[in-house]
Amino acid sequence: MNVTTLPQAQPAAEWFARVRGGQVDATSDAAWRAFVSEPRNEVALEDCEAAWALSAELAGSANIESLLAEVDRRLAAPPRANVPRWRSWRAAAAALVAALGIAALLVLNRGGSTQAQYDTARAEERVVNLEDGSVVTLNTGTSVRISYSKEHRRIDLLHGEALFEVAKDATRPFEVHALAGVTTAVGTRFDVEVNAGSAAVTVIEGTVTVSASSGSGAAAVPVNAGQAVDYTAAGAVSPPHPADVGRIQGWELHRIVFSDVTLAQALADYNRYSEVPIVLQAPGLESRHINGVFRIGDEQAFLGALEQGLHLKAERGDGQIRLVEK
Q1: List of residues 6+ apart from 53 with CB closer than 8 A
Q2: Which of 87, 88, 170, 200 is the most exposed place for a label (fewest CB within 10 A)?
Q3: If one looks up domain 114-245 in CATH, what number appears?
Q4: Does the predicted TM-score (pTM) go above 0.85?
């Protein structure tokens, strides 16, 4: 939790209160999607989630308990006549911001705890070796915050994608918090990606559980090797489904793997690793499906395959590469 984010916490806390109160449809609310698309807002929302999750861990703090109880009371109370509902959200948010500040100070002053943040820029990857022997591999455009103590191992995935190879420690579960969900493991290998207000968890080895981090009461979903789940910004977790493990293993080896994906999705994925964006200007080809494996950064091979396979021509100019029909 980052104390410097506290002055900017009020808008995030208001959104968090609305989502927790069931007043936002995260899949269709345009204002919500616009808010979470900003990385700094994602960080502030993660701090709100952290304060809420810490309510149980910091149960000995009377101030924390009182403030978080006030948030729940405000959200549960029916709206009074002639009083706009947004006032209840803001009152709940104000209590949450206060709790956030106290939780931040308590966490930062704990003995024996360590915290750090790691980031990658566009087209950059990074491997981080943690003190317990776990390894985190950050994909392009990713930011994680590490918080270790004697009692817990916590990672906050603020945005982007990361692969986790977890050292076994039955006394300290390994938790990855992203948006409104938490992935818990003791020792395993899995990937978490945050994209456009939702998150995806893919398990490569072992088993994890995925649950909402807001105390919704929903049962945690177990996810085994070769399976994946998705969850929304509100924390609703999908049933497990077959995972595209090859894509994750690909980027770990500096390859980008397209397995029967649309051209529009392939370009979006490729542009995450490219300083010069590739833009499709050939109407009707967005939905064409493609397959292939390309070395990250090998622009010539990628464009050559598109030109040959889809009869396109690459034109450079204005800081981008345009794909047009021949």
Answers
A1: 177, 182, 213
A2: 170
A3: 2.60.120.1440
A4: no
